[in-house]
Amino acid sequence: MKLKIYLEKEKHTQMSFIDQIEMAKGVKIPQGTFAKWITGSRIPRKKEMLILLDITEGNVQPNDFYID
Predict the structure, then answer these.
(1) Rounded to two decimals, what is the model's pTM?
(2) Dihedral class, residue 16 (left if φ above 0, else alpha if ψ from -120 to 50, else beta)
């Protein structure tokens, strides 16, 4: 599932999801970087992808960033 779709489905804003990551993992992701992941203009690094996979309980997969 695309990250944008996940956020809509779970009724998250970018900031609420970034806050959730920070609380759960202690990792601060800049909002500008996160916005680029959503638009597809930037792909998360391996460490970041693993965090997204965990936080979304497997709903957002690494391949979702490569396949349209």
Answers:
(1) 0.93
(2) alpha
